[in-house]
């Protein structure tokens, strides 16, 4: 399946560009898709910056970096981009109608044996699968930020998903040196189900003035040995993504612990999404 297989990644934001880099580094031809030249340019610069960092650290040669960049072709036409791809990964922002419409286009334009995957972190894979004529080939493939660094990938199956598709995807991910786990479709899957309420609780602590953001983050880095504290992590993930995950988990469970803090909704209204917009719980250069 993987011999000469092309991969399409739809959406070239932080996650989409990171996933594009993962596949291009592993030797795949990648068709990177977004809806405007400006969005594609943003994706191109994310991959160039990330691989450039590896070059400057002496971990990648300039020739290898160029080869990675040359394996990526950029498209604004989704149907054209996916027409000869064996794996299509959608990573656009969290809007169910948009994702369903992309999947309808992809379902019609992609080869009949292609795997149709979504990187959604908050929406029901089942709702996306139900929108297409071949839901058995729809699966969740949830990468973590930064995708080139984090090894875990959640593979999410729905009631429709063909077991053979799950098995193929798991093998493919192992070949990328990722560490896949398979999970059934529920809001938050495994990691966000446990991680995001923790981040949400830290936001309540901060909002209620129990401690400074630095003290909250330091406490978890020092004691739990997490690589970063919960508020810095919210800024890395994106406050919009954290909010979307909390809202979906709250909708599904009605569990008060999942309810997003008012300050999180206000940060998102103010476009303070974290690192990607330069300001969130912290301010970035
Ligand atoms: N893209 C590519 N590579 C990156 C990167 C990026 N955005 N950010 C960091 N890296 C690389 C660096 O180049 C470096 O690589 P080398 O070891 O090869 O030199 C390595 O990652 C470590 O980076 P740094 O030395 O700059 O910094 P660090 O040691 O402090 O690590 C971190 C930074 C990788 C972000 C680390 O703090 C970390 O793992 N934090 C936790 C992140 C996490 O939990 N992510 C999951 C969030 S949940 C999610 O994403 C899912 C969801 O749906 C919400």
TrEMBL record:
Belongs to the 3-hydroxyacyl-CoA dehydrogenase family. This is 3-hydroxyacyl-CoA dehydrogenase NAD-binding domain-containing protein. Pathway: Lipid metabolism; butanoate metabolism. The chain holds residues 1 to 285 of 410 of the full protein. Coiled coil: none annotated. Keywords: Oxidoreductase. The keyword Metal-binding does not apply. Residues 6-185 form the 3-hydroxyacyl-CoA dehydrogenase NAD binding domain. Residues 188-284 form the 3-hydroxyacyl-CoA dehydrogenase C-terminal domain. The keyword Nucleotide-binding does not apply.
